[in-house]
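Open question from group meeting: does this chain pack into something compact, or does most of it stay loose? Before anyone orders reagents, we agreed to write out a predicted structure and look at it together. Recording both the input and the output here so the notebook holds the full record.
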Amino acid sequence: MKDKTFIAGCFTVIAISLIITIINICRNDGNHTLYIETPGPNTPEQEFIPQGSMASTKAEFDRQSADFGTIPRDTLISEEFTLTNVGDNTLYVLDVNPNCQCTSYEVSSKYAEPGGKIVITLNFSSSNKSGFQDIKSSVRLNTETGIYKLALKGNVKM
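Structure tokens returned:
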């Protein structure tokens, strides 16, 4: 009986600790610092930009989808997506997040002044892939829309 009471007590302590951790993560503590990640050769570098200096702007992609057709396995495909700042404030690339480890990315610049351009290159590796592929990457910008989806589509034949 003591073992069951001890185990129940342990689970209760763990549950309370988890709830407190989640509350602390979700609580807005007034810190308005955004972290901009840009890929380096092996590790991303981080830069801190105060949110107050980052006004919303407008952006346009030249396209948001690329069809690479049919490719053999063990092939690396690179597609460039050009982003233009069509707003009145500086455009920042806050984050790029591919939904597959088979895809890496490069960003030509962390920001673009009004009228400027940023090129986001997605690199897809077809290793260990077969059949139709629809790889999505989320791009987070300081725009009203906020998150944009870029897609790489095509077939990988064995």
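Observations to bring back to the group:
The first strand starts at residue 33 and ends at 38.
The CA atoms of residues 104 and 130 lie 18 Å apart.
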